[in-house]
Specification:
Chains A, B: It comes from Streptomyces rectiviolaceus. The structure is a homodimer. Chain A is mostly helical. Chain A is built from eleven helices and no strands. Chain B binds a DNA duplex through helix 1 and helix 3.
Chain lengths: 215, 215
DNA sequence: ACGATGTTGCACAGTCGTGTGCAAGTCGGG
DNA sequence: CCCGACTTGCACACGACTGTGCAACATCGT
């Protein structure tokens, strides 16, 4: 009565590996063919179709995973923080770890007409972000010529810009998250010194918490 | 001995229109087919091949034009300004007018392996930008945790982010250029009030100069 | 009206990607 | 050792796009 009868151990591993590799491959080229993905996963095209009935289905599975990852990272980062600037910093640092998946999501949303619902699925994240920005602008923490909603675009833009810089070796990966957070908060009108201090504090708390949890 | 013998008036107009429409179409979908472009230009696919031997040739022509536009806008904006922050502001405002073409260039560069030389062709612009950033960081005008070269990525990111916001109707087109400039300068560490004042002054000078030139 | 130039519509070959079918493998556990 | 689940390698049909050839226009200047 085993639900996973026999050699499906390899099968599951394959499925997972295909998903992982597909993320990397689609990140490199959003139009990557099934063959490219299959070969990159060390598997034949036909095998991929054994796990996913169509290209769209494969992408759908990836999207599902990615949305969940982004959503949970954002929620975890925001959790229990009232101060707008601090909430933004913490959430941004948390999302930074899954930024590649976030980037892929928007890259796919721009392409597939089918997948244009992606932005809706990230609705919670965006709304939550908007609310942080709105509060920050209202209490004067943030200063910007841009309307609240546009700050979300800018955050995205800076996030992806630094990611690309990291890919090109212009920015060291370890510093990237903090630099991104500082840069965005500064762009939002927070004085540079204050942004630096805040982000440093939040980031250090993050590593401390993680060390406690892990060890 | 007329170099443009006869009905090439329409022909030239067609060629130009195809180029213009292709920019818009490729901006909407970087993988737009020759048929899509042709129809959008009110012409049959075969006609496009009458002007450009291949898809790559068409794109090449577009790239040529776009690089020239971006380069000249940037140069004109920078011209004769010594102060780093002011130079950045002025150049950014000038480039804003051709930002769609700039965006298309990078969009194409990411795609076509053939066209990966685009970033090289924009070398002058990038180097010039780097030099402005470097000077600003050195004299303390700019403050950022990011290395000089990464500021270029951030500028690009903010530029495109606001463009997208304008497309989505989140930001009014008239204010977009100024807001972009202010936001970037603020991100580069310039105090918000100072950035606003500087950009307003530079932008007003721009319109004044243009009015004088036009009228 | 004529001729050069450009446009159109159609047919065609070639390439690439998708999705499916099927027979011959391979691998692990009972 | 053998059974069942998975994988492989090939076959195919199908559609979309590119690039070319050619004959039938349309249009403008002379």
């Amino acid at each position: 009565m085993n639900p996973r009868p026999a050699s499906s151990v390899r099968a599951d591993a394959n499925r997972r590996r295909i998903l992982d590799v597909a993320v990397a491959e689609l990140l490199r080229d959003p139009d990557a063919s099934m063959d490219q993905i299959a070969r990159a996963a060390g598997v034949v095209r036909r095998t991929v179709y054994g796990h996913f009935p169509s290209r769209d289905a494969l992408i759908e599975a990836i999207v599902e995973r990615a949305v969940a990852a982004v959503e949970s990272a954002h929620a975890a980062g925001r959790e229990g923080i009232d101060d707008p600037a601090e909430a933004v910093a913490s959430s941004l640092l948390a999302v930074w770890d899954v930024a590649d998946r976030y980037r892929l999501l928007l890259s796919l949303a721009q392409r597939s007409v089918t997948m244009s619902g992606i932005r809706e699925r990230l609705g919670h994240v965006h709304e939550s972000g908007m609310e942080m920005f709105r509060r920050g602008l209202e209490d004067g923490t943030f200063v910007s010529p841009l309307p609240t909603r546009a700050l979300g675009y800018v955050l995205e833009g800076i996030l992806f810009a630094v990611m690309e810089a990291v890919n090109d070796g212009v920015v060291p990966a370890e510093k990237a998250g903090r630099s991104t957070a500082i840069t965005f908060l500064t762009a939002a009108g927070l004085p540079a010194s204050q942004a630096t201090e805040l982000v440093t504090r939040v980031a250090d708390r993050r590593v401390a918490t993680r060390a406690t949890t892990d060890g």
